[in-house]
Design brief:
single chain; 207 residues; mainly beta; 8-stranded mixed beta sheet; 15 strands; 2% helix; 37% strand; globular
Length: 207
């Protein structure tokens, strides 16, 4: 049984409305005893909605100063980062998109509370996240909030940061670099440059 946090019934923590619920065929993102890596959102959008020519999703090792991964992406492509929370020992999914050439946050999913995980709606500048309680866990909706580049401190095998790329291919960050390396997720080429002042965001820090 999923542990229910004492604040789960507080104002602002909503049951998922019908529009956010799936039917019997809905794929569950979080399953007991398994870390599920499924497609996450990296949508490449440009002015007028045209596909961004030459846009690529990259993973760069900032510690070593080298490019680890580069894949072409287009409008509607998805990328997901999954890791196992180091304290709760449960999977956490972070889903991103690219809007107007800026790496943006779409949502986070988890099934139990833990350190550095939200317990309700949060405010980031002009964006207020949605916090939904569903049958199989919690969803935090970021509504395409722009992040800029996302930095990740690569965790060990017990954390197992894994990316699912467009087309379904999976890449473990530990297969690209060492534990403790600082890597950056980003998009280069084909899109609108990220606006000045867009903050760098650190996520998935081996939690």
């Amino acid at each position: 049984m999923r542990r229910k946090a004492p604040w789960a019934d507080a104002p602002g923590v909503a049951e998922a409305p019908a529009a956010h619920r799936g039917g019997p065929g809905r794929r569950r993102f979080l399953r007991d005893g398994a870390t599920v890596a499924a497609g996450a959102l990296l949508a490449m959008a440009t002015y007028g909605g045209a596909e961004a020519a030459g846009a690529r999703f990259e993973v760069a090792d900032l510690s070593a100063g080298r490019l680890l991964l580069s894949r072409p992406v287009g409008e509607g492509d998805r990328i997901l980062m999954v890791h196992v929370h180091s304290i709760a020992k449960r999977p956490v999914e972070e889903e991103f998109s690219v809007r107007n050439g800026v790496l943006s946050m779409e949502e986070m999913r988890f099934d139990t509370f833990g350190a550095n995980l939200p317990a309700g709606p949060e405010h980031f500048g002009g964006t207020t996240t949605g916090f939904l309680r569903e049958e199989d866990g919690y969803r935090v909706l970021h509504h395409g909030r722009p992040l800029g580049a996302v930095q990740v401190m690569v965790g060990g095998p017990e954390v197992d940061h894994t990316l699912t790329l467009p087309g379904g291919g999976r890449v473990r960050l530990l297969d690209l670099t060492r534990r403790g390396a600082r890597v950056e997720l980003r998009v280069r080429g084909g899109g609108r440059p990220h606006p000045a002042g867009t903050p760098e965001t650190r996520m998935g820090m081996g939690r």
